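Model it.
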Amino acid sequence: MNSSASRQNGADGAQDPDRQRRLSVLAKAPAETLLSRWAVLRLDPPVDVLRGPESGLVALQGRMGGGGQPFHVGEMSATRVTVRLGSGHVGHALIAGRDARKAKLVAVIDALALDPVHAEAIERKIVAPLEAEAQQADAALRAETAATKVNFFTMVRGED
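Modeled.
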């Protein structure tokens, strides 16, 4: 299989940082927001579901200090799905939770983004706005958290 066919079918998606970023943004977006962004494009491509939607548990690992020995943190529910569009492009999704409809939509958007005809519109009208909203929400949370910070080194003990 040549590299363009491999890319079209999603075989090397794990190596594509743009695709990783796109899938991360889509998976983290609230379902209602994602659906409203999707509606703007007014696309209804023919879709074959190749796998799923399947819901199950994913084991989570942590590392003390980011580089220590791995340890089991727990599990979380996740849903995965793989779709193929009429164009032959294959899209994948793995999202937290059990929302099969959102997982399928993420996979469809992923597949459409692999098509040069739709890639720019997907980025401009769905991914970039969702990413900007997530960054704004993160900045607001950081600001709210910073406002409650206490610097213990400057506190006076109350003794003379």
